[in-house]
Amino acid sequence: MKKRTAVFLSGLLIFFLSVSSVQAVTMNIVTGSTKGTYYQFGLNLAQLLQPRGIELKVVPSNGSVENIYAVFKRPNTQLGIVQADVLAFVSRVQTNPVLKQIAKKIRMVFPLYNEEVHLLGRADLKNFEDLQGRRVAIGKDGSGTYLTAMLLFELSGVKPARTVTIGTDEALSQLKAGNIDAMFYVAGYPVKLLADEVAGDNLALLPIGNRKITEFYPRTVIPAGTYAWQQKEVPTVAVKAVLITYNFRHYHCENVGRVGQLIYTNLDWLRQHGHPKWKAVDLNYKLKGWEQYDCVKRKLRTAAPAAQKSPASVNPVLKAIKDVLQVQ
Question: How far apart are CA 154 and CA 158, in angstroms?
């Protein structure tokens, strides 16, 4: 009798384990630098989703340009965070067949928050226009910082003597050493890198108020005291961060829809426990030119509160940016 009971209990345990394994969902989100806001948002989402049966792996990356192509092409990459100007760039380059296909297949899950353009430079520089003839780090190839910096120069007509395509960690080291004059970092404040690794160092955030730039990008400010070494508010411009997915039609449609539903119904939890930028998130913001993924919309209708393959060696998004902006 005891033996039969043990066999029964063992079989029951195997059954429940097999059921839980079938129901478990594993997903990936491609983000950005481990010291950036995208990555912190990814960690917050993973923390939210894990007790609700979704294991979300947070994947660091070079940023927006890499991410939009990763969601389009990389296996098992269901979610990504990108800058809205990358989405706008892709959707408007209608002469490139690969970009046309990407624009057709990428969908918005939610708009997130405004990302401020941080322009950190030597304290003797006064503003964006002082970058004329200077040495400026513009982010790695494949980052949203890279695209935004290039567009800012294109819009304004300001021409640095040299643009350096390096990551933000290396850029800050080079700036402190005097090898470059300024660096761009597009991310929602407070940025961990600037909070933890700048302590004056004869550096300052430079204002961006160029009229041609502000006709394209919305004005904003980085408030005084955002960083311990920053005493005054700094006028700058912003770009919206966006959570995106692929236009899945079957299995992942249900999973991405459920993720969207959980974010929407637990936004208060994210605001309380997540990165400070969650407090600035408006999930109902109407992002011009981009429609929400229908699998997410269906889930929100049913449960929203009543009150409310390996990537190719050449990334065609990055190639198109260089072609359009005539980057050598």
Answer: 7
Tokens 């160092």 -> residue: 201
Threshold 0.70, pTM exceeds: yes
**Ordered alpha helix ranges (H), the chain:** 2-23, 37-49, 64-73, 84-92, 97-105, 144-156, 168-177, 192-197, 211-214, 251-265, 267-273, 294-303, 316-325
Average predicted confidence (pLDDT) for the chain:
86
Helix residue ranges, H only, 117-191: 144-156, 168-177
Q: Tell me what the mean pLDDT of segment 272-301 comes to.
A: 91
Are 46 and 203 in contact by the 8 Å Cβ rule? The answer is no
For residue 91, which amino acid is it?
A: S
Predicted confidence band of residue 307 (pLDDT cuts 50, 70, 90)? very low
The CATH number of the domain covering residues in 27-114+240-317: 3.40.190.10
Each domain of the chain, given as residue ranges in start order, spans 27-114+240-317, 115-239
The tens digit of pLDDT for each residue in 218-262 reads 899 999 999 999 999 999 999 999 999 999 987 799 999 999 999
Strand 25-30 relative to strand 79-83, pairing? parallel
As its CATH architecture, domain 115-239 has: 3-Layer(aba) Sandwich (3.40)
Q: What are phi and psi of 69, to 5 degrees?
A: -75, -35
The answer to whether 27-114+240-317 and 115-239 have equal CATH topology is yes
| DSSP line for 278-296 | GGG--TT---TT-PBPHHH
pLDDT band at 75 (very low <50, low <70, confident <90, very high): confident
What are the contacts of 210-213 at 24+ separation with CB within 8 A?
210/128, 210/129, 210/152, 210/155, 210/156, 210/158, 212/155, 212/156, 212/157, 213/128, 213/152, 213/155, 213/156, 213/237
The pLDDT-based confidence of 20 (bands split at 50, 70, 90) is very low
